[in-house]
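Here is an idea for our session: we take a single protein and study its fold together. To get us started, please write out a protein record for me. Start from the sequence, derive the backbone structure tokens from it, and show both lines together. Go ahead whenever you are ready, and we will take it from there:
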Amino acid sequence: MPISTAASRVVAPRRLLYGPGPSMVDPRAYQAMNQPVLGIRDAYFLQLVGEVRDGLRHVFGTSNHATFPIPASGSGAMEAAVANFVMPGAKFAVFTAGLFAERIAAMGRRHGANVVRADKAWGQIFSEDEAEEFISREKPDVVAFVQAETSTGAYQSGRAIAPTAKRHGALVIGDTVTSLGAMPVELDEVGIDVAFSCAQKGLSCPAGLSPLSVSERAWEWLAKRDSEPDTWYLDLRLLARYFDPPHVYHHTPAPPLYYAMHQSLAAILEEGLQERWQRHRRAGERLCAGLERLGFTFLVENPKHRLWHLTTVVPPAAVNEADLRQRLLDRHDIEIASGLGLLAGKILRIGTMGPLANDADVDFLLEAIGGCL
């Protein structure tokens, strides 16, 4: 419908976002977005950008200098990682057990890589022995895995993959889109060379900026790359020149998104990263216990392999998942999500992220689901 008059206002409905993302935005982030827009080289704005980078290093668990937000969604940051570090003709090994691992593999093919895959049923994870066998056999140049698979709710520890990959000289790319800010990522400890994430899940920000971090080893490799990546906008060597003096123009940052991320990171720092992780863990365990009482079963059977803040469940046999989602929306303004890809129409994906990761909001959700069955 066209905008009818200059006086028309945007009045969006208030929803409770209990899906896999976007999550509820931290109130401090909302308030910060009302601040004045500044120029891209304004001294105050550049100082704030530097503080955002420091905050991202903290939540990533890294000292990587090359840590900054990509001006894109999480899939844009994924493409930046693949386009810059996977050369045409390189052997690119991808551990696939969900939709977003499939997406990484598809990007690798489009960028001309020789993609080899270790495949498992969606929702499963890879063991250290399986990673060792696959990497030793294939001897890839680059290895990629999804730490927190948004399509399945499974958590894949990088400790099962990264050490083997590095022993064989491969760079390691880790998708931390759903884990950052809600679960341990710990890039330096795990040994991930290139990690990317997003703003609208564990960080409780609006979408539009996607954090990326590159190890010194990987940046040295990129600096020596003898060809340009087949993308200009996502060329990390060009992007990085804005974030350090003399702040060479590459793109126009959106100050309100930086304000929001700054305040969300400040809220994480004040709460304490460990405390935030444990809050999400407690909320997830409470949700799982309640859903089990209501007759739901879990896609990821082993609790140790589940994401703390994104739960994937199969509804009871008599329950139509689409009808349940619509009832929750109509009666309670609650949004939860269906499955994606192979799991479309078969599961529900329920998130307890950021402001909703607490006992009262979990109990409210469980009561609403119980009343809508």
The chain is about 40% helix and 15% strand. The mean pLDDT is 96.
